[in-house]
């Protein structure tokens, strides 16, 4: 059992081959944090880590003892007003308006495996041996509240999954203002905090800054996890780089409003917390009622950021993503959005599908505009029945024609939204999230349905089921194109709406994936506005960004790879001039970037000339040959687009016998210096072939691959801006 409880010292030790997590029941009967990091030997006690000493100004817990002050004890789940002066992990208001709490240890249990979180996405075990769980039950005796802290340690991954649960056994109702999923006190603050920040079309850029005293945080109050701040942060030691050094990643398995923070006190203790954002959250819990927090993940690496990312990728691929497409390479698709926008009809779609099939494409996705009377973004959201003006023979006919061509067929939905100009709005104006007599803002001319109301979700589900059955869908793109404002529900208590809304989204997803287990779901929120682990539990892939420009995608995909698997990143080759930037990039570069993702095309195939078609055919057969490796191989970042003109990354298979490097140079430079890039992940002893040349693994990893003008030089056809090259590294068989 990798979780041990030392009775005498009342110490819990969760450990596996790579990490240790230590905490203990304190003399004040609450829980203290002792250590998290690289694995240490187990022993009976680690009490010296409490570092008790008298310090001025601190409220002391025991009479006549100046050494025991909560302010100076690392807490496992701190509460307000105890003399711990950093952020609390829980906030409950009761009775006369006071927020005092005193949770003390009651009992615990340890078991093999991991429980499901009701109604919430969470990591899971494939076999009970995959993980061990510790649940610690704490009680506030005065209020009769039960707080359960749950910790799962994975057997073969440096991962701890946590969540918290509060139940009111008392007579009186309480107001729950905040319940964090995790709180972790680290004994020093010598870290750089890494975040993935951005905005629409420039999602998940990597930012890093040293921790400073005080609060630093990332958050979303948009109703979705957002393009702006991803529910992820990492603390890395200042010298940690891609290949070496200590880093701890924190990720929240949640798609709604969140807060992740690091509160550093002037003694340099860094408190990390993650959970639902308290600002838009309030639950009244009556006698017998409970609240379950989402899951938060702590992922560790002692070998730099690449290994941290690989740990996240393995965790998400093996223990979060579910269903038919788990671990399976993804169909090569064509999506008509940038090819036609709203301007299409049946014949155009059938012609596009035919031409796509001839190129080797496997799945045709009909995007926005197929329903209601939708010819632009002003109308019809909520009217999920076919637009017979555009598709006169119906969706079933179109789908069967496309299936007859040997293609799979997929459709776009934006289930959570409503247009004022819709039949649904005429019927149910009260289903919009908006307050009576208050102003309501639109986003892209649309409004948000009250998904916290189960009637709304059921109604939308019925409409979707009808269409899915009629058209025998193989794929669904689930979009969500605005942040939420003026959130007010006619159905729900207001402090619950944001969270219940997300639960409504999760419930609809769950119903659909249970009913249609073969359907591939791709989540989307104006590109990557909801690229989070919560979504990956339902949809194994996410449209990474509305920015389809290959050069912009370098940063977006590079940043996304810090946490999310390559197989989860929707990546398409689009037309030039690029629709977001008007940039002209070679077709080869557009594909070389998109290969490191789910891969597809998003253009009007009917506009392609003969040479382009031939190139695309070759690209598709290349992807078919290597997609399992590209999407599920071990991924290494080698050169960062955030640091220079070149980007380089590679994937390696488990046997270390095959690898592919993507090398991208943004601008052509003149007479540049020499360049060697050290590769990663190969077997030092093996002999490899790259472009007919032989190299040992140790050569490639210690001397490096020579990347110079020769490979993108003046006399080379690939001279110029935005050039790229793939290198296939194949083991030489004896
Ligand atoms: C935003 C998505 O990100 C796009 O790919 C496309 O589906 C449009 N919405 C359609 O309205």
How far apart the termini lie comes to: 43 Å
CATH class of the largest domain: Mainly Beta
Query: Can you give the mean pLDDT?
Result: 97
In helices, the fraction of residues equals 10-25%
Shape: globular
Note poorly predicted spans: none
Say how many strands there are. Answer: 39
- What's the gyration radius in Å? 27 Å
Alpha plus pi helix count:
13
**Oligomerization state of this entry?**
single chain
Q: What is the architecture of the largest domain at the second tier of CATH?
A: Distorted Sandwich
- Quote the beta fraction: 25-35%
Tell me which ligands are bound.
(2R,3S,4R,5S)-2-(hydroxymethyl)piperidine-3,4,5-triol
CATH superfamily of the largest domain: alpha-galactosidase from lactobacil brevis
Instruction: From the 3D structure, determine the CATH topology of the largest domain.
Output: Beta-galactosidase, Chain A, domain 5
Number of domains: 3
| Helix/sheet category | alpha+beta
Largest sheet: 10 strands, antiparallel
What do you see in this structure?
This protein is of the alpha+beta class and 734 residues long. It folds into 3 domains: 3-319, alpha-galactosidase from lactobacil brevis (Beta-galactosidase, Chain A, domain 5, Distorted Sandwich); 333-631, Aldolase class I (TIM Barrel), CATH 3.20.20; 646-731, Golgi alpha-mannosidase II (Immunoglobulin-like, Sandwich). Helix 6 runs parallel beside helix 7 and helix 9 (550-560) runs parallel beside helix 10 (587-594). The protein starts with a strand and ends with a strand. The model has no long low-confidence stretch (mean pLDDT 97). It binds (2R,3S,4R,5S)-2-(hydroxymethyl)piperidine-3,4,5-triol. (2R,3S,4R,5S)-2-(hydroxymethyl)piperidine-3,4,5-triol is lined by residues 337, 367-368, 412, 479, 481, 524, 526-527, 543, 546.
């Amino acid at each position: 059992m990798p979780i041990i409880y030392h009775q005498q010292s009342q110490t819990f030790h969760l450990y596996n081959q790579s990490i240790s997590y230590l905490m203990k029941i304190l003399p004040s009967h609450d829980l203290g944090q002792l250590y998290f990091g690289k694995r240490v030997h187990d022993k009976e006690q680690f009490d010296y880590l409490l570092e008790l000493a008298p310090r001025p100004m601190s409220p002391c817990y025991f009479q006549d003892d100046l050494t025991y002050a909560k302010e100076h004890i690392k807490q496992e789940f701190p509460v307000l007003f105890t003399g711990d002066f950093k952020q609390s992990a829980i906030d409950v208001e009761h009775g006369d308006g006071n927020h005092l709490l005193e949770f003390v240890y009651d009992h615990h249990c340890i078991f093999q495996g991991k429980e499901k979180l009701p109604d919430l996405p969470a990591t899971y075990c494939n076999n009970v041996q995959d993980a061990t769980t510790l649940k610690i039950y704490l009680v506030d005796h005065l209020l009769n509240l039960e707080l359960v802290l749950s910790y799962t340690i994975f057997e073969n991954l440096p991962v701890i999954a946590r969540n918290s649960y509060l139940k009111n056994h008392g007579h009186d109702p309480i107001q729950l203002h905040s319940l964090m999923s995790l709180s972790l006190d680290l004994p020093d603050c010598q870290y750089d905090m890494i975040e993935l920040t951005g905005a629409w079309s420039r999602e998940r850029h990597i930012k890093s800054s040293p921790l400073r005293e005080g609060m630093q945080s990332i958050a979303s109050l948009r109703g979705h996890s957002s393009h702006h701040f991803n529910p992820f942060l990492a603390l890395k030691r200042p010298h940690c780089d891609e290949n070496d050094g200590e880093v701890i990643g924190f990720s929240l398995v949640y798609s709604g409003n969140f807060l992740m923070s690091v509160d550093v006190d002037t003694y340099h203790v860094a408190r990390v917390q993650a959970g639902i954002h308290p600002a838009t959250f309030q639950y009244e819990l009556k006698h017998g009622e409970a609240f379950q927090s989402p899951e938060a993940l702590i992922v560790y690496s002692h070998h730099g950021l690449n290994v941290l990312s690989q740990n996240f990728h393995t965790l998400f691929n093996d223990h979060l993503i579910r269903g038919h497409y788990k671990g399976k390479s993804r169909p090569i698709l064509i999506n008509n959005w940038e090819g036609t926008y709203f301007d299409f009809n049946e014949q155009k779609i059938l012609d596009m599908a035919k031409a796509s099939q001839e190129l080797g494409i496997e799945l045709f996705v009909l995007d926005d505009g197929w329903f209601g009377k939708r010819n632009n973004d002003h109308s019809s959201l909520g009217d999920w029945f076919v637009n017979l003006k555009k598709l006169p023979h119906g969706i079933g006919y179109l789908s069967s024609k496309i299936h007859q061509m040997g293609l799979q067929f997929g459709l776009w939905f934006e289930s959570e939204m409503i247009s004022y100009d819709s039949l649904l709005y005429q019927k149910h104006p009260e289903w919009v999230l908006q307050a009576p007599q208050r102003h309501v803002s639109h986003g892209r001319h649309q409004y948000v349905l009250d998904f916290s109301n189960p009637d709304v979700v059921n109604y939308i589900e019925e409409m979707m089921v009808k269409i899915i059955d009629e058209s025998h869908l193989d794929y669904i793109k689930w979009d969500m194109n605005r942040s939420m404002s003026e959130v007010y529900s006619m159905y729900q208590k207001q402090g619950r709406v944001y969270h219940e809304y997300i639960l409504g989204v999760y419930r609809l997803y769950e119903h659909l994936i249970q009913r249609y287990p073969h359907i591939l779901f791709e989540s989307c929120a104006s590109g990557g506005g909801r690229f989070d682990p919560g979504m990956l539990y339902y949809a194994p892939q996410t449209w990474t960004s509305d920015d389809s420009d290959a050069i912009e995608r370098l940063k977006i995909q590079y940043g996304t790879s810090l946490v999310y698997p390559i197989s989860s990143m929707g990546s398409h080759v689009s037309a030039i001039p690029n629709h977001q930037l008007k940039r002209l990039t070679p077709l080869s570069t557009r594909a070389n970037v998109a290969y490191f993702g789910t891969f597809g095309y998003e253009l009007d195939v009917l506009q392609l000339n003969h040479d382009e078609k031939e190139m695309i055919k070759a690209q598709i057969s290349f992807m078919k040959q290597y997609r399992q490796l590209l999407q599920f191989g071990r991924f290494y970042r080698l050169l960062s687009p955030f640091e220079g003109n070149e980007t380089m990354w590679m994937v390696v298979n488990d046997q270390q016998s095959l690898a592919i490097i993507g090398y991208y140079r943004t601008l052509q430079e003149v007479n540049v210096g020499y360049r060697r890039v050290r590769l990663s992940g190969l077997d030092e002893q093996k002999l490899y072939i790259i472009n007919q040349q032989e190299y040992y693994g140790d050569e490639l990893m210690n001397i490096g691959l020579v990347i110079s003008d020769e490979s993108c030089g003046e006399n080379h056809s690939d001279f110029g801006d935005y050039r790229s090259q793939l290198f296939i590294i194949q083991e030489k068989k004896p």
